[in-house]
Design a protein that fits this description.
It comes from Microvenator marinus. With 135 residues, the chain is an alpha+beta fold. The chain is built from three helices and eight strands, in the order βαβββαβαβββ.
């Protein structure tokens, strides 16, 4: 079901302030940034091995990332696992008693389909399924 660790999402107040840390100090390859309006976030990705680090900055006060930052401050927000078939992954998770945070897959960065599992069902880890567009 899960094929790889796609990325680790880190909530930040300002992507612009964090890019130099990850790119220049830590030496990670900067892959670019984009706004994901459906999630009310701006994201930036850095390559680390076969995976990525995703920085998430809220673009609206009602954004889930804004709420996370208000409650927890900056830090790890989620772990994203790649899946070959997001519908099958969602079905298997639901059959296993996991609660999904949306009724259907959502549009994510890079044109991927995404879906989140409630962290109370996964040891306080917000788990994201991610499927590449066209898969």
């Amino acid at each position: 079901m899960l094929t790889k660790i796609d990325h680790i999402g880190i909530a930040v107040h300002s992507i612009d302030e964090k890019i130099p840390l990850y790119r220049d100090v830590l030496g990670l390859e900067f892959l670019g940034e984009e706004e994901v309006s459906s999630q009310k976030v701006r994201v930036a990705f850095f390559k680390i091995g076969e995976s990525m680090i995703e920085l998430l900055e809220p673009t609206a006060d009602e954004s889930p990332i804004a709420k996370f930052l208000a409650k927890n401050g900056e830090g790890i927000h989620h772990l994203a696992a790649g899946v070959d078939d997001i519908d099958k992954a969602r079905a298997r998770a639901a059959e296993g008693g996991l609660r999904l945070l949306s009724d259907k897959p959502l549009d994510g960065a890079h044109g991927k389909l995404i879906s989140f599992v409630h962290p109370k069902d996964t040891g306080s880890v917000l788990l994201e399924f991610t499927q590449r567009s066209g898969d």
